[in-house]
Design a protein that fits this description.
The protein has 19 helices and 18 strands. The chain has helices at about 10-25, 40-45, 50-55, 55-65, 85-90, 120-125, 150-160, 165, 175-180, 205, 220-225, 230, 240-250, 355-360, 365-380, 380-385, 395-400, 410-425, 435-440; strands at about 1-5, 25-30, 70, 95, 100-105, 115-120, 145, 185-190, 215-220, 260-265, 270-275, 280-290, 295-305, 310, 315, 335, 340, 345-350. The protein has a 7-stranded mixed sheet with strand order 3-2-1-4-18-17-16. A 6-stranded parallel sheet has the order 6-14-7-8-10-9. A 3-stranded antiparallel sheet has the order 11-12-13, with no helix packed on it. It is globular, with a radius of gyration of 23 Å. The chain binds NADP nicotinamide-adenine-dinucleotide phosphate.
Length: about 450
């Protein structure tokens, strides 16, 4: 029997487990996660109002309930938990599917002011991540600036502009729902440093910004005119062309003065965050212009946008895992078709899949072929790695390191507690938002 540990139970980890059991009848897979809950960014990243994408949890669940797959939550891999070297002794092969655990920084003055956050911190808060900051993100906020024009920026912009009534049916934590119900946010500025034809959001996500009750999208035709590709989008790749067409349609409609406006801005690069009484009060942008090669140059003209909340949404970034090589330039682990490379040499038995392998790009489905590539590499090495003897039951060895894993039954107990919490609040399922509640629920038979 080939024994494999998959570290991380997000989409890449679960698709790795799925490929393993589909392609190899003689494999047993333990999927470890530092959280007591499975599904990674599907649970803690996908916006609560994206019910269809969230329902992917049902597909991932069938994998984790497979007879040769086991979920072991609450297992931290690394210096504060099970060292990677120890894990390697417990399994024939380890696949790291740890994602990109942090966010990129802007590197501009004022970035650390109170009221300035990464979009991922805001997402963690409304997604009930147990490590999320509980600051009053929205207290006293009339105007918010979201820096970046990718799909995460679209998610946080939409959540800021959506009314709480529409979110009542989601599994958002009650505190975040209450804060959104009391929100006074009237303007959300989503700002790109390059042009509309270079924005990273996808058209389906972009379109969702219009049609939110009580909100309107405002696009300045003069900013579209700065992008030569907007004049004649026919030469653009299909995805960008569709984005430009949607934006041009919105730019033709004059603002009607809705209670909340979503202002999509382009060719503005952030240069500093402005402060008032020790908190963020706005963002100074420099107007940019296309350089003719897909980039932009500064123009020396500046514009200040008022904001009591600034969310930088400029991409995720992988973090090094103790005991594994790391390419600091792109935040990934060097690999050859998923096999970890140590100083350019493959060491059979160590693999990567997902964002820590290819960087934080693509949609959830991108992880399927990515995971399969890694699993094919692993199975090619199987004859070699399986010769090493490993314990029959690694959980006993994990317990010996002081770790008490949350089993699938523990996770199901969390699910029951979340259903009960929802019922007590007159809502459907409501997520538990802190470690104590999650662990107490997991230990309740
Ligand atoms: P992203 O798609 O890489 O977008 C990052 C944005 O930040 C870009 O607009 C980028 O502009 C901008 N940026 C980077 N550095 C900047 C700087 N110093 N100053 C100003 N702007 C800067 O990242 P993401 O939105 O975090 O998304 C990550 C991945 O998750 C993507 O593949 C995304 O599609 C996926 N995702 C999908 C969904 C969905 O399908 N519903 C939802 C969320 C996330 P430049 O282009 O100029 O660099």
């Amino acid at each position: 029997m080939l024994r494999v540990a998959v570290v991380g139970s997000g989409p890449s980890g679960v698709y790795t487990a799925q490929s393993l059991v589909q392609l190899e009848p003689g494999v047993r897979v333990d999927v470890l996660d530092r959280l007591p809950c499975p599904y990674g960014l599907v649970r803690y990243g996908v916006a609560p109002d994206h019910e269809k994408i969230k329902s992917l949890q049902n597909t991932l669940r069938t994998v984790l309930e497979h007879e040769r797959v086991r979920f072991l939550g609450g297992v931290q891999v690394g210096p504060d938990g099970v060292p990677t070297a120890r894990l390697r002794e417990l399994y024939h092969a380890v696949v790291y599917c740890v994602g990109a655990a942090t966010d990129r920084q802007l590197g501009i003055p004022g970035e650390d002011l109170p009221g300035s956050w990464s979009a991922t911190q805001f997402v963690s808060w409304y997604s009930a991540h147990p490590d999320a900051a509980q600051d009053g993100f929205l207290r006293g906020v009339r105007s918010a600036v979201v820096i970046g024009v990718g799909n995460v920026a679209v998610d946080v912009t939409r959540m800021l502009a959506r009314g709480a009534a529409e979110l009542n049916a989601t599994d958002m934590p009650q505190a975040a729902l209450n804060a959104l119900a009391e929100s006074q946010v009237a303007e959300v500025h989503m700002v790109g440093r390059r042009g509309p034809s270079q924005a990273r959001f996808t058209t389906k996500e972009l379109r969702e910004l219009s049609g939110l009750p009580g909100a309107e999208v405002v696009v300045d035709p003069a900013e579209l005119a700065l992008d030569p590709a907007c004049d004649d989008p026919s030469a653009l790749p299909a995805a960008q062309r569709r984005n430009v067409e949607v934006l041009r349609g919105w730019a033709r409609v004059p603002p009607r003065g809705a209670p909340r406006s979503i202002r999509l801005r382009f060719f503005l690069r952030p240069v500093r965050l402005l402060a008032e009484r020790g908190r963020v009060a706005g963002v100074r942008f420099e107007r940019t212009a296309p350089d003719g090669h897909g980039g932009v140059t500064g123009t020396g003209r500046y514009e200040d946008v008022e904001a009591q909340l600034v969310l930088r949404s400029v991409g995720y970034r992988g973090v090094p895992l103790e005991g594994l090589p790391f390419d600091a330039a792109d935040g990934t682990v060097p690999h050859l078709a998923g096999r970890v490379l140590r100083e350019g040499v493959v060491v059979p038995g160590e693999y990567v899949a997902g964002w820590i392998k290819r960087g934080p790009t693509g949609v959830i489905g991108t992880n399927r072929p990515d995971a399969k590539e890694t699993v094919v590499s692993l199975l090619e090495d199987a004859d070699a790695v399986v010769r090493r003897s490993v314990p029959e039951e690694p959980v006993a060895a994990l317990r010996a390191t002081g770790v008490e894993p949350v089993t699938w039954a523990g996770w199901q107990a969390i699910e029951r507690a979340e259903a009960a919490l929802g019922a007590s609040l007159g809502r459907d399922v409501v997520k538990l938002a802190d470690w104590d509640s999650l662990l107490a629920a997991a230990r309740t038979p």
